[in-house]
Amino acid sequence: MTRAIFPGTFDPFTAGHASVVKRALTFIDEVVIAIGVNENKNTHFPVEKRKRMIADYYKDNPRVSVDAYDSLTIDFARKVNANLIIRGIRTVKDFEYEETIADINRKLTGIETILLFTEPELTCVSSTIVRELLSYGKDVSRFLPEGMKVNEE
User: 84, 106, 78: which is closest to 31 by C-alpha?
Assistant: First the structure.
């Protein structure tokens, strides 16, 4: 069985992230969406709310789960018995950086990283943009995967 973690950004619920998960599931048995926890980073949604939002979106897909981590990505991969790391790429600059990190992870731990570009029409949509728009009370529905709801509580 191939189990991969997908360490998203602090708000991994944009359409670009969903496209990476969808593509990964065409050749990977299970994906764990890993949400980074950083007490010093100001995020729009608390960790538990992000976990609920993403878990709710994937509730009908038993091959996707959601968890939070506050350690190194490779340590978290070992913790959840993942043998792959998936990284979403939006730009060539992202690719160059992630390729370097993937090489380091492979050499240090033996864990392979698969780099997947988001679909071309989603390359400009980042979680940072979504968070910024949300902070101004803007409608972000067009940047989210179809059917995902961002509800303010």
Answer: 84
What is the spatial distance between Cα 20 and Cα 119, in angstroms, rounded to a whole number? 8
Tell me, yes or no, if 127 is annotated catalytic.
yes
CA 124 – CA 126 distance, rounded (Å): 6
From CA 148, how far away is CA 49, in angstroms rounded? 13
Of 50, 126, 127, 131, catalytic: 127
CATH number of 3-143: 3.40.50.620
d(CA 127, CA 132): 8
The domain locations on the chain are 3-143
Q: Please, is 134 exposed, middle or buried when counting C-beta atoms within 10 Å of its C-beta (0-12, 13-18, 19+)?
A: middle
Measured CA distances, 96 to 81, 103, 117 (Å): 27, 11, 12
Task: Indicate the pTM of the whole model.
Answer: 0.80
79 is catalytic: no
- What are the pLDDT digits (tens) for 53-100? 888 889 999 999 999 888 777 888 888 999 999 988 877 787 888 899
Buried b / exposed e over 49-71, threshold 16 CB at 10 Å, is ebbebbeebbeeeeebbbeebee
Out of 17, 50, 87, 131, the active site residue is 17
